[in-house]
Amino acid sequence: MSLIDLPAWQALQHHFDVAGKQFNLKTAFSNDSARFEKFCYSLENDGNSPEIVFDFSKNLVSQETLDLLVELARATGLEELRHDMIAGKNVNNTEQRAVSHVALRDVEHADESTRATLNHMRLFSEQVRNGVWAGYTGKSIETVVNIGIGGSDLGPLMVCEALAPYGDSGLTLHFVSNIDGTHIAEALKRSDPETTLFIIASKSFTTVETMQNANTALQWFLRSAKESRYVEQHFVAVSTNSAAVEKFGISLNNIFPFSNSVGGRYSVWGPIGLIICVYIGYDNFIKFLQGGHRMDQHFQQTPLRNNIPVLGGLIRVWYTNFFGAAAHVVSPFDQYLAEFPAYLQQLSMESNGKRIRRDHQPVTYATAPVIFGEPGTNAQHSYFQLLHQGTGLIPADLILPVKSHNPVGNNMHHKMLAANFIAQSEALMIGKSADFHHKPGADEESLEAKALQELAVHESCPGNRPSTSILVEQITPGTLGSLIAYYEHVTFTEGIVWNVNSFDNFGVELGKTLAERLFAEINGEEAGPNDHDQSTNGLLDIFKRISDRP
Ligand code: F6P
Question: Looking at the record's lineage, which domain of life comes first (predicted)?
């Protein structure tokens, strides 16, 4: 049965028609003095990680809405599939695989191979950090370059930036992902072959961008080191494909393997996180895993109606499918979390940007919204205009650490940041009516009443725009782990309701295949019968003509 034919869906549709679409946040708050308490949830301090608060009260939902959404989750099998994922069943049904990223975070119950890899990560990261791991001239490592793309880049990059206060300040990190030669060229310009370590991170070890960048790095290194016996002091690999790694020239001792059942965008918790482990140290890396595990336990054990990521995911379904919201903004009010929205883009859009259901039939409803975001307050000075006055509904997640790692200016910066964070969710909700008298500015004193009234219309904001505020006591390895796991389970919840497989990503393959053939044509290896469409042939010809110019 299709999702929209389920009685639980139809009950929600009816609820939307009679109540949901007219739901008014200001009225909801004035009718219920306990609304905040009722819709605000906490992940308590567990001794390892400080508290995280999720305030869902400024969303266009009543208790009845949440009850009905939970009914829908139940009807779509969320409880069973949550159990199956944790139990290691093949929930990735198109690739016939289990998904094991959650197991990676359960350090206490890790299996033998996970333990061995963790041990290898510990030894390696300690040696690099304490200077025992020496380069080919005996000098310690000063620069670490992670070469990878997608999930083999975005997670490590985001986490290293987010946890910079815990990082080893003696190490310079570079993340090279793009096939654009500028990316590797700029990293190499800032690196010394004697003191640089390359981590080649690729689950498949076949990704064109990563292989090309890795080869360029290897040639650059060998131009200085001359002898290939030195490669093992400067190149390590993280991959499931040991044969390809060895073929590349990296010794077996320098391979950090992991299982195929860990998806690329879910892989930051394993050896793909090696650069994180080197940068923040093994103990902090374990705290990061434990933070993720804390959210997993909550997700596994808490009844759906009080389950924080389940509610987060269901609220997104409510906006996507009933309000027609095509986008969702995540704005962290923390400069260290600048890369978090980019990370979430892959997590959500590669997981749920699907149009075929798990049972191989086409979907007849919207799936993943576009995720975007930038840190606040910068975002307020760019796209927030559209959130406040645009024609569409764009729900927002706003994230703030209560305690800053940099309480500069007597913590004034942070208090101002916090004021803006709270002001945005308030402004989105309360809006601004046009029924006020526009206060003339100095250069507007000559304006007539009519002109002033016209300006008031432009200044008005409709309000009633939803947001979830997430307050984290402080961004630590533990709280960051919990936050990422929260979004993973939000994504899982949505995927189950939409009945799509959140763990494959076939959609990215076509572009890769076409690029291979176009490369052969651009590179003159294949004459090419010019049998593309007109535009593609035209672009190809223009590129060749201009690039052949002296
Ligand atoms: O092309 C998409 C993708 O497969 C992502 O899912 C993955 O994170 C990325 O490419 C990198 O893949 P790999 O780690 O195999 O190089």
Answer: Eukaryota
Token pair for residue 190?
A: 């800032």
How many A from CA of 122 to the centre of ligand 1?
A: 25
Secondary structure E strands in 389-454: 396-401
Please write the tens of the pLDDT for every residue from 2-30. Answer: 999 999 999 999 999 999 999 999 999 99
Concerning whether 126 is annotated as a catalytic residue, the answer is no
Residue identified by tokens 């020239």 is 249
Residue whose C-alpha is closest to residue 265's, from 373, 150, 146: 150
d(CA 394, CA 466): 8
Q: Is the CB of 151 under 6 A from ligand 1?
A: yes
Nearest of 398, 487, 486, 481 to residue 166 by alpha carbon: 481
CA of 113 to the centre of ligand 1 (A): 23
Flag whether pLDDT at 516 surpasses 80. Answer: yes
State the distance between the two ends of the chain, measured CA to CA, in whole angstroms. Answer: 63
The β-bridge partners of 173 are 144
Point out the catalytic residue in the list 21, 226, 381, 544: 381
* Residues forming beta bridges with residue 256, ordered by sequence position: 238
Residue 503 pLDDT exceeds 80: yes
Instruction: Tell me the CA–centroid distance for residue 189 and ligand 1, in Å.
Output: 26
The model's confidence at residue 449, banded by pLDDT at 50, 70 and 90, is confident
CB neighbourhood size of 101 (10 A): 23
Q: Which has the closest alpha carbon to 395: 518, 274, 480, 313?
A: 313
* pLDDT confidence band for 334 (50 / 70 / 90): very high
Task: With CA atoms as reference, report the closest residue to 347 among 155, 482, 207.
Answer: 155
With both helix axes pointing from N to C terminus, report the angle between 509-522 and 208-225 in degrees, rounded to the nearest 10: 50
Q: pLDDT value at position 437?
A: 59
The atom of ligand 1 lying closest to the CA of 209 is 16
Active site residue 450: no
Neighbours of 172 (CB within 10 A): 16
Judged by DSSP in three states, 43 sits in: strand
As a whole number, the mean pLDDT across the chain is: 96
Asked whether 280 and 167 are in contact (CB, 8 A), the reply is yes
Contacts of 101 (CB under 8 A, 6+ apart): 262, 263, 266, 267, 269, 270, 488
Burial of residue 148 (number of CB atoms within 10 Å: 0-12, 13-18, 19+): buried
The distance of Cα 167 from the centroid of its chain, to the nearest Å, equals 21
Ligand 1 proximity of 210 Cβ (cutoff 6 Å) = yes
| CA-to-CA dists, residue 86 to 103, 498, 500, 550, angstroms | 7, 20, 18, 60
240 CB near ligand 1 (under 6 Å): no
- At 145 the three-state DSSP class reads strand
Asked if 139 is an active-site residue, the reply is: no
Q: Whose CA is nearest to atom 16 of ligand 1?
A: 202
Catalytic one among 350, 374, 488, 521? 350
- Work out whether strand 52-55 and strand 467-472 pair parallel, antiparallel, or are unpaired: antiparallel
